[in-house]
Write a structure and sequence with these properties.
alpha/beta, 2 helices
Length: 65
């Protein structure tokens, strides 16, 4: 899935300079792969939510419950 998205995005810089933070469990794809996708289109993937975060991707809080 992510490989296909990387090919689709090509040389896009749609997230240039944006800081993206992920939380929860992602339904599609592995976090590391999605982070690579964000970085490939110009964004930076952050581990923690800060004042500088521009985009927050919220996954499932706890899929076991």
């Amino acid at each position: 899935m992510v490989k296909g998205l990387l090919e689709e995005c090509g040389s896009s810089r749609a997230l240039e300079g944006e800081r993206v933070t992920f939380t929860g469990t992602l339904q599609r794809g592995q976090r590391a792969d999605i982070q690579k996708l964000v970085e490939s289109i110009g964004g930076s993937s952050e581990k923690n939510l800060t004042k500088k975060t521009k985009i927050l991707v919220v996954g499932i809080p706890n899929p076991k419950f």
